[in-house]
Design a protein that fits this description.
Layout lengths: L1 H38 L1 H20 L4 H26 L8 H25 L2 H21 L10
């Protein structure tokens, strides 16, 4: 009976953690528009990427539930900054102005990632997957920072 209660308590904490994450998303949505206007979109995008990565890595190594919940709040806050600022900077212009084709492309990329994530959760574990994904994201960020703004000479 005690193990069933612990399982139920863990399920309730999982639901609360998801709610806390989306509360962070809501506060990020209210904040990043004005922050981007004040400090610049490119700077806020880089701050969102770096801080989101740091909060997500820290949440993977959290030791208490309260620490995990607070870090997930700030991860949601930063992820909203990434989504809002990158959407404004790209202006959904990957396929001209067709928002539907852009969203279709996002879905075709994200769906296989989500399905492979469910498979790998059982085989590898949540922490290893999260740390690996964040390291790849950090490497991509570093590459984007190092590439100059103008046209690359090999592309012309």
């Amino acid at each position: 009976m005690l193990s069933i209660f612990k399982l139920f308590l863990g399920f309730r904490k999982n639901k609360a953690t998801a709610s806390i994450f989306f509360v962070g998303v809501m506060f990020g949505a209210m904040s990043f528009g004005s922050l981007s206007d004040r400090y610049g979109r490119r700077i806020m995008l880089l701050v969102s990427y770096v801080s989101g990565m740091l909060f997500a890595i820290a949440s993977a190594f959290s030791t208490t539930y309260v620490m995990f919940a607070v870090l997930r709040f700030f991860t949601g806050f930063c992820i909203t900054g990434i989504v809002i600022v990158s959407q404004v900077l790209s202006n959904s212009s990957f396929f001209g102005l067709s928002l539907y084709l852009t969203q279709l492309t996002y879905a075709l990329i994200e769906l296989p990632c989500k399905l492979s994530n469910y498979y790998l959760l059982d085989r590898v574990g949540r922490r290893s997957i999260e740390v690996g994904a964040l390291l790849v994201t950090g490497a991509c960020l570093g590459i984007n920072i190092l590439i100059p703004k103008g046209r690359h000479p090999l592309l012309s």
